[in-house]
Amino acid sequence: MSETYYVTTPIYYVNDAPHIGHSYTTIAADALSRYYRSAGRDVHFLTGTDEHGIKIVKAAGDKGLTPQQLADSVVVHFQQLWKDLEITNDDFIRTSSPRHEKRVQALVSEMVKRDEIYLDKYEGWYDEG
User: Fold this and answer.
1) What is the dihedral of CA 79, 84, 87, 88, to 10 degrees?
2) pLDDT digits (tens, 9 = 90+) for 56-70
3) How many CB atoms lie within 10 A of CB 74?
4) I need a surface site. Which of 46, 101, 110, 119 has the fewest CB within 10 A?
5) How confident is the model over 71-114, as pLDDT tens digits?
6) Which of 8, 4, 24 is nearest to 92 (CA)?
7) Residue 72 CB burial class (10 angstroms; 0-12, 13-18, ≥19)
8) Residue 94: DSSP 8-state
9) DSSP secondary structure, 7-73, as one string
10) How far is CA 100 from CA 34, 49, 65, in A?
């Protein structure tokens, strides 16, 4: 079989329900995946949600929820929208899922072992928006 063609969307913040921008990038990735599949390529199409960050903490706090509670309540809207749009993703990842956390921990541990990560200080501008 041919080399796998890997397609991914951004991993979307779950601070609110999905909107047309989320749909646009997911439909574009889906179209690309379908094209390569029709050309006989082995395709792995991933989408998912980023459930960590200050936007999620603030949105959860505004609703009187924990960030995980907010993520759990919003992620279902993304998953249902992709079903409604007949998106052909092979996988859906949540950054709060145990398999994601385990893999990230393994990668970071490996980088620490190789001395590719170090502690330091950084100052700079940050725009939450």
Assistant:
1) 90
2) 999 999 999 999 999
3) 22
4) 119
5) 999 999 999 999 999 999 999 999 999 999 999 999 999 999 99
6) 8
7) middle
8) E
9) EEEEEEE-SS---HHHHHHHHHHHHHHHHHHHTT-EEEEEEEEE--SHHHHHHHHHTT--HHHHHHH
10) 26, 11, 23
> 9 has which bridge partners?
none
Token readout for 14 is 């779950």
HSE-CB at 68 with a 13 A cutoff on CA atoms is 2
| Token pair listed for 7 | 């397609």
Which residue matches tokens 């398999």? 99
Give me the amino acid identity at 22.
Answer: H
pLDDT of residue 23 exceeding 70: yes
Alpha-carbon span 9 to 50, nearest angstrom: 11
**Residue 128: what pLDDT?**
74
